[in-house]
Amino acid sequence: MTGSTSLGLFQVAFGLTGGSVLVSAGEFPANTYPWLRSRAAGRARVELIGGPGTRTTPDVVARSLTPDTVAVSVSGVDFRTGYRADLAGIRAVIGPDRLLVVDGIQAFGVADLDWTRADVLVVGAQKWIRAGWGAAALALSPQGMERIEPLLTGWTGVTDSGRYDGEEHPPLPGARRFSLSNLSPYATGAFAEALALIETVGVPAIEGAVAAHAQKLGDHLDAVGVPVLSPRDRPEAAGIVVAGLPGQAARAHAALADAGIATTLHGEDRLRLSVHATTRSAVLAEAAEVLAAFA
Known about the structure:
Helix content is 34%, strand content 15%. The protein is of the alpha/beta class and 295 residues long. The chain has a 6-stranded mixed sheet with strand order 2-1-3-4-5-6, with helices on both faces. The chain has a 3-stranded antiparallel sheet with strand order 7-9-8, with helices on one face. Strand 8 (264-266) and strand 9 form a beta hairpin. Helix 1 runs parallel beside helix 2 and helix 3 (58-64) packs parallel to helix 4 (87-94). It is globular and about 65 Å long. The model has no long low-confidence stretch (mean pLDDT 94).
């Protein structure tokens, strides 16, 4: 466990050396700043590929690989477009010896991805898991454990942490070595309860309900003339619906908030709507009705 997706990615970025890392320039900043800061500190060598809106496909990764590439860092689902990464395809392209680092926060709990393709998976609790802020999970493959040093870790990540002798103690076995400090029992408890709730129905069932809601919302937006910029069908779609509102996104965002509908504003031209399995069907039509005035 760690405190956030960002903190987990910082721990990975500062713990990995020995070559260059490919990172999409279109990633959410939480997935770029750890690598940029690591590069500035002389730890990792980083190559930014693509740009805003560029999908990190296996082909894009393949064109950017060099013999010096030791890792690729991607999001399981792109925050801007809702595009679901082809983790199996990327793994096939990079081969078994390079590390695949995945930020899973936009997908975990709602997209039934094969996370075993990743050498590192970092997942915060506050998105689809709906457990609030302050806790995240960091999982590593045996290869990830071997090659990522526990550099940004603390006293709870070492053996005999209760022996205060002023000496540096050896790291704990397994992923517990990346522990930095004691986490909030409330945040970790909420995370555990949310995961248990997800397990009662299973991710495929949640994914199916979310996909049905996303399809209905897309149909409502089509009917009122609002372009849908996100993928519409699986396997690429993952529950995020992006509405194109050139020059009107801020006003539309405020109007939806006044109607009690929470969305995410992306610049002047886009709104992101994340439909949950528990979203009332009536809200989908209500959102489209509000957005019709800005089409």
